[in-house]
Structure formats: C-alpha cells, structure tokens
C-alpha cells in the first residue's frame, strides 16, 4: 500500500530537513532524489509556500510527486512584489495588479478556481485583491469587476 506524505515547502528550496526528511526517512527511499524532483517542479513558485504530495510505494521504492499551486493571495503578492497584504485593506493599499497579471494568476490557479472560463476565473482573482488592499489597474477591485461585467476588458480574454 502506498504511503502519502503531504507538506508545505518553499518553492524550489525543499530540503532533506523537516518536514520532508523525517517523514521520508523510514520509507527507505532516496530522499535527495525526491527533494531534487520537488525543487525542479516548484522552481517557478520561488519565494512562496507550495503544497506538495509525495506518494511512495514502500515495496518498489518508486515515488510520485504532485505539486499544488500556492494560494491566489500568495501569487498576487508575488506578482506585485510585496511581502504581505494590507492590515486594513479599506484604508491602506499595498500595490497594484494589472488585468494581465490577474489573468496570469488565474491561469496558474486554473484547476483550483470555480469559474467556467478565464474571464470568470480572473474575476475570482480580482475579488481576492479586495481583501488584500491591492488595487487593479489603479482602481478599486470592485470597480474593475464592474468594468469586466460591462465588457470593457473583453479584448484581454480572447
């Protein structure tokens, strides 16, 4: 029966230390081979926490690695180059996201968002900006959501 280990690792910087090393050690697998594979698969998420699932067959010592995507909020912060969101989002603004960046985040989170198409998924990402103190195209995120509903930005979604 396969063993599954789930952990949150730094993108591209997983190590043989906790949480992975101690969990993988008793399974008798090549820990560095697994760590290197994880780092290869997560290097695009550098500087973010990434959920990782390692599935090991203890008999054959074969492993499979599933990489999740960081939360939308982390991807947004990474896009605007800020450490964390605003403490009071209604009063304080920490950065500005462009529609193109919002679409990029929506594409990265594609499988985890509920929207039926990229336009709706992008609206979900922009909705996340509301609670983070992040403006979109220099405006309040809610105003940009209205513009998207009115079709003003349709050319970007084609």
Structure overview:
With 158 residues, the protein is α+β, with helices and mostly antiparallel strands. It has helices at residues 20-24, 31-42, 72-80, 99-108, 118-130, 141-149; strands at residues 3-10, 49-57, 62-67, 95-97, 134-136. The protein folds into 2 domains: 3-67, 2-Layer Sandwich (Ribosomal protein L11, N-terminal domain), CATH 3.30.1550; 72-157, Arc Repressor Mutant, subunit A. Strand 2 and strand 3 form a beta hairpin. The longest helix has 13 residues, at 118-130. It is elongated and about 60 Å long.
Core attributes:
Arc Repressor Mutant, subunit A; single chain; Ribosomal protein L11, N-terminal domain; 6 helices; two-stranded parallel ribbon; alpha+beta; 5 strands; 158 residues; three-stranded antiparallel β-sheet
The name of the CATH superfamily of the largest domain reads Ribosomal protein L11/L12, C-terminal domain
What name does CATH use for the topology of the largest domain?
Arc Repressor Mutant, subunit A
Mean pLDDT: 91
Shape, per Cα inertia axes = elongated
Distance between the termini: 46 Å
Task: Tell me briefly what this model is.
This protein is an alpha+beta fold. Helix content is 37%, strand content 18%.
Topology (elements, then pairings):
Layout: E1 3-10, H1 20-24, H2 31-42, E2 49-57, E3 62-67, H3 72-80, E4 95-97, H4 99-108, H5 118-130, E5 134-136, H6 141-149
Parallel strand pairs: 4-5
Antiparallel strand pairs: 1-2, 2-3
Helix pairs in contact: 3-4, 4-5, 5-6
